[in-house]
């Protein structure tokens, strides 16, 4: 399963990409609005660092305007994936942009029916927002399970990009279900590394080594 970072922050991206586990980036208007500087320059820099799919969302709401803005965003860098919301206009724009060879991520997906529509118009990615579904006391991962089943029935090529993740269990469950990608805030990527037994085990190994050979030996 691929891992994307859900951020527009260059420092976070620069810190996490060297780990070798990051396959791409998702941004949204809220995330980009928090960053200083020109958003187009920021997106270009992100693409250069990550060298992987980088979602940039349209802020137009009418299909023709979305298509125009999507074409424009796609010119920033070959890695740009145009994000459109799951509305009628967004679905129309997805069909048009995808038929021009522009990759499209259909975002703000909250139901399996919506995911079916995105696949039918050739979306490269569908983004079910699991955390926001959990937030309204409904199991977000059930949405992912349903989409995996539906897409599997028809061999749709659209990749399932699990979004709005809040913690490591979203990522583990997504991997168990066979989702293609999880996009995670930087803090969730960090949390994936953590286990208290790793810390305890490492402390003991190094302590024993130091006792036998001295603190500076081979370190
Ligand atoms: C995905 O592409 C979105 O940017 C993101 O995952 C939204 O997450 P949130 O619900 O934490 O804002």
CATH class: Alpha Beta
Q: Reading side by side through the largest sheet, how are the strands ordered?
A: 1-2-3-4-5-6-7-8
Number of domains: 1
What is the CATH topology? TIM Barrel
Distinct ligands, ions and cofactors found in the model: erythose-4-phosphate
Q: Span from first to last CA?
A: 35 Å
Hey, roughly how much beta strand do the residues contain?
Answer: 15-25%
Summed up, the helix count is 11
Please outline the helices and strands.
Elements (H helix, E strand, L loop, with lengths): L1 E5 L3 H7 L7 E3 L2 H5 L5 H12 L3 E4 L5 H12 L5 E6 L2 H12 L4 E6 L2 H9 L4 E4 L1 H6 L4 H15 L4 E4 L5 H10 L3 E4 L1 H8 L2 H18 L6
Parallel strand pairs: 1-2, 1-8, 2-3, 3-4, 4-5, 5-6, 6-7, 7-8
Helix pairs in contact: 4-5, 6-8, 8-9
Bound molecules: erythose-4-phosphate.
Erythose-4-phosphate (E4P) binds next to α7.
Structure description:
The protein is of the alpha/beta class and 219 residues long. It has one domain: Alpha-Beta Barrel (TIM Barrel), CATH 3.20.20.70. It is 52% helix and 16% strand. The chain contains eleven helices and eight strands. An eight-stranded parallel β-barrel has the order 1-2-3-4-5-6-7-8, surrounded by seven helices. Helix 6 links the parallel strand 5 and strand 6. Helix 4 crosses helix 5, helix 6 packs parallel to helix 8 and helix 8 packs parallel to helix 9. The radius of gyration is 20 Å and the shape is globular. The relative contact order is 0.12. The mean pLDDT is 97. The structure holds erythose-4-phosphate (E4P). Erythose-4-phosphate (E4P) binds next to helix 7.
